Structure formats: structure tokens, C-alpha cells
Amino acid sequence: MADHNIAGSNSLRNAPTEEGHFGIFGGRFVAETLMPLILELEQAYNNAKNDPAFQTEFAYLLDKYVGRPSTLYYAERLTEHLGGAKIYFKREELNHTGAHKINNCIGQILLARRMGKKRIIAETGAGQHGVATATVCARFGLKCVVYMGAKDIERQKPNVFRMKLLGADVVPVTAGSASLKDAMNEAMRDWVANVHDTFYIIGTAAGPHPYPEMVRDFQCVIGDEIRTQIMDAEGRLPDSLVACIGGGSNAIGTFHPFLDEEQIDIYAVEAAGKGLDTQEHAASIAGGKPGVLHGNRTYLLMDDDGQINEAHSISAGLDYPGLGPEHAWLHSIGRVNYVSATDQEALDAFQLCTKLEGIIPALECAHALAYISKIAGTKPKDHLMVMTLSGRGDKDIFTVADALGTDL
Amino acid sequence: MTAPIKSQRLAARFSALKEQQRAALVTFVTAGDPDPDNSQRILDGLPAAGADIIELGMPFSDPMADGPAIQAASLRALQGGMTLRRTLDMVRQFRKKDTETPIILMGYYNPIYIYGVEVFLKDALAAGADGLIIVDLPPEEDPELAIPALSAGMDFIHLATPTSDDKRLEDILRHASGFLYYVSIAGITGTQSAQTADVEQALSRIRRQTNLPLAVGFGIKTPADVASFAHFSDAVVVGSALINVITENLDSQGNPRPCLVEKLHEFVAQLATGVHKSSSVTSSG
To answer: Minimal Cα–Cα distance from B167 to chain A, Å?
Structure first.
């Protein structure tokens, strides 16, 4: 984990405030029943953060169990194909369980154990966070319940089976749009009814304070490693960073260590679904406005009455009508560029990467690949571009086959 | 425009009930459930049926603190075109016939935030609402709405729960007004029921810190439940059980049967026997 205390007073890395605010974003908008627990969690996290024993155990598990550091790989053929920027992939898909989600789960389960919690709950969209949570629960012998939208259960069957093999109860959520936001509602209902023994492992850098800060800190291992690895490979920092964004945990983990290096251009790629001019997308910055949901103030997709809209993306992991509050803030101050890619562009990039690099990317990070495909060619050849390849695409082959009209 | 004068309905109602030495029956229904017309008829008939205070739910797409009954009610209301503006219209309509029964608007923060806090408070007071209960605004977020509401003359009812210890109660009570709503279980609406002994103990602990009337809610379903909680509280809230009456009186297409409104009011009348049977131990008295 990065040492976040060394940043100067003007640093962009000092947020949030003690109350969990990133500018006007963030906060603790939860039912009173949960507040004592949230405050206890904050206390426990602050203690753990400063406890060398916790940091040692976290680092040990990332090394031996997750298999970190993940490699920084020069994507030579993609670079040649696009004919501009020199493209590196941060290979988070090589982690145990196949995505960046495990970094956060290791951190949170260690915290849950410190707090004496016996039961773990989680929400999941694509199933990557559910699998990572079920994995750490198996590893530490804790009971695990994963809430998953019924629609997502249908389109992510391999991950559902993996979770069950790992011993988790996967609870289908049929309420609302039966996807990630509804799974999160249901997880919060479970939490409020089981406050005494249950720890909620939120999978993204969102939710009530201290989750956005805590998840970010656990994911900053991505950006911290990029810094060391690009210095080794190129002797200098990258010129640009790119990551896909749903809730935004791989993106904030990639970006946060570099926020103060203003010369680095940063791009977060939202899911534009069937297009930003339709109602069917998941781009909460491009198509939403500030509101309050799931414990924090952030950009949300909603109607004029403040009712939350369903999101749409071909990628279940990006299919959420909001994003983490730190991203909302980084957008408001203009530090990070929030851009988007459509379902179709992501599908094209998915195939391109698979054919040129022999890497099947998750549909989530195929959105980042799609954006790279647009801009890499406009950059000079000495431009260093690092993209976080946040997950592997095996889970998505059925969705892709369906979209391509292939019968498996 | 002059600022609206603070409504006295809630204080007047609690003081009148104290004279009668009984607790208030508080009924929760969702605005627009099962459809706008029937919802207005339900609302308008609640005082005559025996409701002393009305909680009117402002439907929200993502009601995280609510169980299946109220979630479904919100969805029906939203599908029928209910909005926050129309919820206030319902209150305005109600006030043409009833100027005394307090109405508390209950819901989640986002629709109010999007409406705009200041203009919402002005419109809600003008429509005739007396207080607010916003589930996802704990005392840490009092500056968002609780403090502006109090300045505008609108009561902001805070929630206390089994997880609120004495230290937290101080924070909760700092800007509490109208009454204090004790959530009897750690959980969501309409699910399990609390042990009366536990709740009685919690309320006596809370009374050492406040003179506000104390209401009890969550998991209270029958006239007998109402009677047992009314013994030691100032108000008893029933919500999901009312919604269940609505659900039971929808046909297979989800359309209301002709008797729905009457059935609901009959149920409220039964619940009211629970507060009339018992004599309450009042708070400050």
C-alpha cells in the first residue's frame, strides 16, 4: 500500500476530509442503524493502516497468494497496429481470480478478521468481485453471501458456478433492474439486519465513507507498481494513463499515485452502451448529475424527479448508474478526463486485443482498449501510454459469442 | 415572500393525546400506491379511520431501508407516475378537508436533493406537511436537510435504533424535533418483530436524555402489537402491514379491487383499537 501521508498540503492525494468528503462528493448517507458500524469500521481501518503487522500481512498475501506484482507488459503488436503511442498493459488479469478485485478483498477480509466479524456479504455485477470475495472467504474460513442481480446471474454463469464451488451462497436479486445497483441495495438490507456479525466487502471505491478511501488505498498497489515498473522499463514516468470505469476501483488504484504529476494525462473510460444519445448506457459522468445513492454523493444516472435510472452496458461490471465519489470530484476539478466507449467499440477492441496480443480481455477493460484504439494513433511514438487491463475475458466469451451471432 | 410559520399540528396532536392519556396511531402509506386516485382516497380517509398522525411515503426507486412490501409499493407508485411534486399535491388536497392531522413525509434524500432543498421545504410547508423523516440522513449529515428544515419551520424527525448508544443519542438528539422515531429492530421495514421488553428498556433509556415524544416502528403488524407497544410509547407506527392490505386487494393484473380503500380503512380502525385500549405512560409528564 502506498504511503499516502507524504503528500504535501496542496496535493490531490489528501482527500477525503475526516467526514469523507471529496469536495462536495462522498459523505455518509446511510440509515442510522449502520452509522455506529461505519464509524467502527473507520476506526478499525485507521488503526490497521498504521499497523505494520497489518501491512506486512497484506503485502505477504498480495505477493504469495495473489501473485503480485502483476507485470507491466509492452503491447508491441497493438502499438505497431495503432501506429502511435507506445502502449503498456498493467496485467491485473494475471492476478489470482483473474482481475484486480482480489487486491481489495484481501485488504478488507484482513480487516474483517481484526474486527472479529464471522460473516461476509458482498454485491457483484460481472461476478469478478463476487468470485474474489468468495475466494478470500474460502481461504480464511468465513461464511460468504453474495448478492447478484438475476440478469447478471444469467449472463455470468461461469462466475456464479465458481462462487458456489468456493462455498458462497449466491442470492439472486430480482428487484428493480435486477443488476448491480439492486444487488447493492439488497446487500445493504442484509447488512442492516445483521450488523453484529457481518462485514460488508464493497467491491468498488464507492459507498459511505470510509469505503471509497479504503478501497482506493487497497487498489493503489496497481499504480504504485506501475511507477516502479515503468521507471525500470523506460527510465521515466508515463505520459498518459487509461482505465475503464464502472464504480472506478481499478481506475482510482491506477490513477491515484500519479494525481500530483500534472504532466500525466489521465483518461477514465465509461461504458456508453448503445450510445450516449440513447437511454441505454452506463456513463454517469457524461449522462448523469450529482445526487445521493448508496451512502455517497456522486454523479448518478437519474430522471428529473431524482429516481435512479437503470444503466446499460454489454459489460456487467460497468453496468452501474453511478461511480465512486473521488472520481466525481476529479471530474469536477478537471484532473481526470472522463470519456466513453460503446458496446460495439468495446467488442471490436476485445477482438483486436485477442488477435494481436493473445490476451482475451474482460469486456470491462475492452472499453479502455477501445479508447486507446482511438487516441494512440494521434500520439507521437515516444508517448508512453499505460492502460490497466483489469480482468481476463474468459467469463465474457458467452456474451461475446452472442453479440457476434456465434452459437457455442 | 414571507417565510411560512412553523406548523403546530404535531405539537398540538401530541398534547391532546397526552390529555387523553393514550399513544398516537401513526399510519404509513406510500403516496401514489396503488394508483394516484385510490391513494388520495386512502389518505383522505385515514383520520376518520383512526390515524392520529400520517406518514406519507415519498416513493424512491432504491429504497434501501425497506423490505419487500414497501419496495413494491414504491414501484407501483412510480409506475403510476408519482413524483415528489405530485406527492406534495396530495398533501395540499388533503389539507382542504383536514387542517389538524399532522402529515410527516418519509423517504430518501435524493429526490429532495434534486428538487432543491430550500424550494422543497418552502413547497412542502405551503402544501401542509409538518415534518420529514429521511432514512438515509444520519446526524452526520444534518447540515444537508435537518438544519435547513428546522430553520424553515419544518420538524425533522430523527431515528434512533438498537445500535444507537448513549453517546450517539446525543448526536441524534442535537437537531431532533417533533418526536423521536425508535426503530425497534436492526433491520428493514416489515420483516421481523421486536421483543416488547427490549424496546421498553430502550425507550426508558432514551427518556433519560430527551423530553421529545417517542414513537416506535418497524415490524408492528396487528392491533395486539399496537396495544403492547402503546403501553410505554407515545406513538406506534404501522406501515408494511397496511401495504400488505393494499397488495392483498389487487387483482391478478395488479389493478385495485373496488373494496380496497374500505378494507384499508377498516384495518386502520382495528389498529386504532390498540391505542384506545391502552393507557400510555407519557414522556415528560
So the answer is: 10
A residues 273..312 contacting B (CB < 8 A): 289, 291-295, 300, 302, 304-308
Q: Cβ of A31 and B65 within 8 Å? A: yes
Active site residue B165: no
Identify whether the C-beta of residue B47 lies closer than 8 Å to the C-beta of residue B98.
yes
CA atoms within 13 A on the CB side of B47: 13
- From A34, which residue of chain B is nearest by alpha-carbon distance? B163
> What's the rounded mean pLDDT across residues A300-321?
93
- pLDDT per residue over A166-199, tens digit each? 999 999 999 877 888 899 999 999 999 999 999 9
Parallel, antiparallel, or unpaired: how do β-strands A25-29 and A21-22 relate?
antiparallel
Cell of A215: 478501497
| Contact between A191 and A198 (Cβ < 8 Å) | yes
Interface membership of A24 toward B (CB under 8 Å): no
Spatial separation of the C-alpha atoms in residues A84 and A90, rounded to whole Å: 19
Sign of CA pseudo-dihedral A253, A257, A260, A264:
negative
Structural domains of chain A, with CATH = 22-64+101-215 (3.40.50.1100), 67-98+219-403 (3.40.50.1100)
Q: Domain B9-277 has what CATH class? A: alpha beta
Query: What's the gap between Cα B200 and its chain centre?
Result: 20
Query: Rounded to whole angstroms, how far apart are CA atoms A290 and A300?
Result: 6
> Are A383 and A331 contacting, i.e. CB atoms less than 8 angstroms apart?
no
Flag if A30 and B109 touch (Cβ within 8 Å): no
* Among candidates B84, B136, B183 on the partner chain, residue whose Cβ is nearest the Cβ of A29: B136
Please indicate whether, in this complex, the C-beta atoms of A305 and B84 are within 8 angstroms of each other: yes
Question: How many Cβ atoms from other residues are within 10 Å of residue A63's Cβ?
Answer: 11
- Chain position carrying cell 393494499: B246
Complex ipTM value: 0.94
Query: What per-residue confidence (pLDDT) applies to A148?
Result: 96
What type of residue is A278?
Answer: T
Determine the Cα–Cα distance for residues A167 and A169; give it in Å rounded to an integer: 7
Alpha carbon distance B245, B241 (integer Å):
7
CB B125 within 8 A of CB B88: no
Are the CB atoms for A149 and A179 separated by under 8 Å?
yes
Q: Is the peptide bond before A212 cis (omega within 30 degrees of 0)?
A: no
Residue A240, amino acid:
S
The pLDDT assigned to A6 comes to 56
- What's the pLDDT score for residue A9? 78
Kindly provide the b/e burial profile for residues A99-118, where b requires at least 16 CB atoms within 10 angstroms of the residue's own CB: bbbbbbbbbbbbbbebeebe
Question: Does any CB of chain B come closer than 8 Å to the CB of residue A18?
Answer: no
pLDDT, averaged in runs of 10, over chain B (285 residues): 70 97 97 98 98 98 92 95 98 98 98 98 98 97 97 97 93 96 89 88 96 95 95 96 97 94 98 80 43
